[in-house]
Amino acid sequence: MRVDLIPHHGLIDSEDLKGKTAVVIDILRATSTIISALENGAAYVIPVETPTDAEQLAFTDRSIILAGEKEGIKIKGFRLGNSPLEFTPAKVKNKVIAHCTTNGTKTILKCSGADYVLIGSLLNRSACLDYAGRLKKDIVLVCAGRKNGPAEEDSLCAGAFAEYLRQNYLGYSFSKISMDAYYLYKINAINLHDRVYKSPSGQNLIGMGLKVDIDFCLRKDVYSVVALYKNGVIKKIKNNEMY
Ligand code: MLT
């Protein structure tokens, strides 16, 4: 079995994902937010491409919560933005969330050709990869990236994922690009916060007064949520069920 990496969603070829497990990574902030929402009891998350898609869903079911960002800022008329800290149990427990973000939700939608699509973040790294390991398929770490290019924080997270797989699972070989991410992470692991603060996405969030979101998203292995995208929705896998 092999571990590979796609640096940003502009490079996804859904044919290449057939027969594989895709792990989508957009740690600042879409996938961290989805994992936090499910951890806090959201029923499920519907990733959508455009704000209009989300509004149409809410039109048919008024109880759906609209959430998401454009250029980092909450979309006008939506109840929640894209800060994981907003998705508290009081706001999301048992709720369905329609989620629209600049890169993250688009990346998830583009991965639908994979056999399995898991939502990855540092928050649920070990839970996500332990599940991926049990699926016994090639794993593709799919980074969302930004502005149609790679995003440093996603590459670092992919490297942390490669590290976990190397340490805990025998039997995977690693593509060169996934090993590049692994070394990038190893070199920066001690100064991860500083490196991410200085990245373009980090600077953007800091500029909006959201450094707290970065600190939240850089916590590793704190949630046991395994989140699977299937039939258009992202649900928490209960009791490690296999699908
Ligand atoms: C994205 O999908 O591009 C991000 O999650 C952006 C953000 O949260 O600001």
Account of the protein in words:
It catalyses: (2R)-O-phospho-3-sulfolactate + H2O = (2R)-3-sulfolactate + phosphate. Keywords: Hydrolase, Magnesium. Its EC number is 3.1.3.71. The protein is 40% helix and 20% strand. It has 243 residues and is of the alpha/beta class. It has a single domain, classed as putative 2-phosphosulfolactate phosphatase (Alpha-Beta Complex), CATH 3.90.1560. The strands form 2 sheets. The chain has a 7-stranded mixed sheet, with helices on both faces. Strands 3-6-4-5 form a 4-stranded mixed sheet, with helices on both faces. Strand 10 (227-230) and strand 11 form a beta hairpin. The longest helix is centred in the middle third of the chain and has 17 residues, at 152-168. The chain is globular, with a radius of gyration of 16 Å. It starts with a strand and ends in a 7-residue tail after the last strand. D-malate (MLT) binds at residues 26, 28-30, 69, 72, 82, 101-104, 144. Residues 26, 28-30, 69, 72, 82, 101-104, 144 line the site of D-malate.
Short description:
The protein is an alpha/beta fold and 243 residues long. It contains 11 helices and 11 strands. Bound molecules: D-malate.
Q: What keywords describe this structure?
A:
243 residues, alpha/beta, putative 2-phosphosulfolactate phosphatase, seven-stranded mixed beta sheet, four-stranded mixed beta sheet, 11 helices, 40% helix, globular, binds D-malate
Q: For the record, what is the CATH homologous superfamily label?
A: ComB-like
The neighbouring-strand order within the major sheet is: 9-1-8-2-7-10-11
Bound molecules: D-malate
Overall pLDDT score: 97
Instruction: Please name the CATH architecture.
Output: Alpha-Beta Complex
Low-confidence stretches: none
- The N- to C-terminal Cα distance equals 19 Å
Please give the radius of gyration in angstroms. Answer: 16 Å
- Based on secondary structure, the structural category is alpha/beta
Major β-sheet profile: 7 strands, mixed
